[in-house]
Amino acid sequence: MTIQQLRYIVTLEKERHFARAAEKCLVTQPGLTIQLKKLEEEIGIKIFDRSKIPLEPTPLGLEIVEKAKKILREVDTVRDFIIEQKNILTGKVRLGVVSTLSPYLIPLCLREFQKTLPDIQFIISEDSTVGLMNTLETGELDVALMATPTGNSNLREFPIFNEPFMAYLPIHHQKATQSTYELDNHDRDNLLILEGEFCYNSQLLDICSLDTSNAHLNFSYEINSIETLKNMVRQGFGFAIVPWLSTWVETTQTKASSIPFAIPQPAREISLVTSDTFSKKLLVEKMSQAIWESLPDALKSMTTYRKIRWDDSPYFSKKLAK
Fold it and tell me: Which Gene3D superfamilies has this protein been placed in (predicted)?
């Protein structure tokens, strides 16, 4: 016995006609007839007297239809309750943000979050991509803001915007005054990457067509933030590729120059990500809207990109396997 079969017999009792009932139920008449027959065979009771015109329920059939109506009312109540819960925009939301994005985006969108979702208390934390994926799956986080696609079938992704990568060069670099940047072999050899942020590194190595980096340096320094990486560039220790949001408010006094790549610019897709069991779609929609409204106009107007993946990178897979 299924809920759909109960809906069929309630509609059939109301219409007293197979064709009209089938039309109301958005099913073919043979399909409705087959489902009625299956139900009658399962319970061992004839629900409708097909010899009567118009169609009539049998005495026991009428009682079954009345009970089905009560069941369907309860089912509708449960459905309405679930919809209401999905649309509740109150309480606490645990938001994780990838560390290469958080310092630049969260200060921009926090006020818009407060304006759009005034009754939500956001508990915001930073983590690596791998850490965010793990805590989403374990339920320690509700939502994560990160680069996608993740390649994880247990997660759902809601893309918001594309963020270009910028070449970040020391001010004395021969290409520091150019309008666009094209990678050369010297800079490939001097690329600085982030320790532990394997998805970000995978994207950079894809842009540079490399499978390793930092091998030329005569020191070992585990860089864990974009700002530290940028400071290394300012002091002349290499070349970096950084997210657009980390450079857009910089002045010309930083001892470094950020230059866009030639079109199509390499970019990372930024999305809100949830577990596949997360049900509050309205919350995700409101958060996405707030983030989009907070973005600088210059970023929102950019459209020509070459999207850089990281989930299928051999570098990323190798690092996770260690």
Answer: Periplasmic binding protein-like II, Winged helix-like DNA-binding domain superfamily/Winged helix DNA-binding domain
Q: How far apart are CA 226 and CA 106, in angstroms?
A: 15
Residue linked to tokens 């994880």: 152
Distance CA 306, CA 49 (A): 66
State residue 279's pLDDT score: 82
Q: Please list the residues that pair with 166 across neighbouring strands.
A: 242, 260
User: Amino acid identity of 193?
Assistant: I
- Residue 320 burial by Cβ neighbours in a 10 Å radius (0-12, 13-18, 19+): exposed
Strand partners, 270: 147, 161
SS3 240: strand
Tokens of 6: 């109960």
Inter-CA distances, 319 with 153, 173, 212, 322, Å: 20, 32, 12, 5
| Per-residue pLDDT at 6 exceeds 90 | yes
User: Would you put residue 278 in left (φ > 0), alpha (ψ -120 to 50) or beta?
Assistant: beta
Inter-helix orientation angle 198-208/314-321, to 10°: 150
Give the residue among 107, 105, 109, 130 at the shortest CA–CA distance from 194: 130
Render pLDDT for 289-315 as a digit per residue (tens, 0 to 9): 999 999 999 888 877 788 777 666 655
Domains in the chain: ranges and CATH: 3-87 (1.10.10.10), 91-161+269-305 (3.40.190.10), 163-266 (3.40.190.10)
Residue 82: what pLDDT?
Answer: 67
269 and 230 in contact (C-beta within 8 Å)?
no
Which helix (DSSP H) or strand (DSSP E) does residue 299 occupy? helix 297-300
- The string of pLDDT tens digits covering residues 84-142 is 666 678 889 999 999 999 999 999 999 999 999 999 999 999 998 889 999 999 889 99
pLDDT at 51: 86
How remote is the C-alpha of 66 from its chain's centroid? 44
pLDDT at 192: 82
Separation CA 203–CA 67 (nearest Å): 60
pLDDT at 272 over 60: yes
pLDDT for 80 equals: 63
